[in-house]
Amino acid sequence: MQKSLTMAQNVFKVRQIINSLQMYTNTVTPPTARLPEDSFRQTDPGKLFRAIPFDKLAALIPQTQREQSGKGCIPWLPTQGCIALLVLKHYLCLSDSMLIERLNTDRAMQRFCGLRLQAGQRIRDDDLPGRCRRRMAACLDMDKWQLTLAWEWKGDLNHTHPGLTDATCYESYITYPSELN
After folding, report:
1. How far from each other are the two terminal CA atoms of the chain, in whole angstroms?
2. Is the dihedral angle over the CA atoms 128, 61, 156, 36 positive or is it negative?
């Protein structure tokens, strides 16, 4: 019982950070403004960004043909940015098109994904999150990701030897039954 309680406490802490991220990203900075690195690191999204080892998670994803050869169109986001984009999509509960719209206007979200759009530059590809999702789904090894995250967060986690999964991490929209109209 104590093991699941500490895991629940850790999940609660992460959710608090994510809720702060939602409040922070609801403010839109003007397109010409730059979010300084020190300023970003002190915000809740910056703390979340530092807590997730995007570089180590990206190393677990095989390189694309473009990354191997250096030829072809330069993607909007590297592998690390795709992972960050999917984190934002899930926790902000945005559709793909709304996520791209917010990414175009919110400098904190751009910084979170490692993207620097120039003034007037916009991403018009609404399928970008879908492509990132398909790429991750094709080669995601959950066991390796869990080990990587457990290793990185070992100082903050208690009882890392049991393998527990929180059922709330799966997308489900269970609601009370409603009457049919």
Report:
1. 44
2. negative
Neighbours of 35 (CB within 10 A): 19
With tokens 């009370």, the residue in question is: 176
Distance in angstroms (rounded) separating the CA atoms of residues 133 and 110: 18
Measure the CA angle with vertex 83, ends 158 and 118; round to 5°: 130
Tell me whether residue 49 is exposed, middle or buried, using C-beta atoms within 10 angstroms of its C-beta: 0 to 12, 13 to 18, 19 or more. buried
Structure-token pair, residue 103: 């990414």
φ, ψ dihedrals at 85, nearest 5°:
-60, -40
The CA distance from 39 to 53, in Å, is 20
At 88-130, the pLDDT tens digits run 888 788 899 999 999 898 888 888 888 888 888 898 888 899 9
Cα separation of 113 and 2, whole Å? 36
Q: Which amino acid is at 162?
A: P
- Chain position carrying tokens 């909007």: 76
Of residues 53 and 67, which shows the higher confidence score? 53
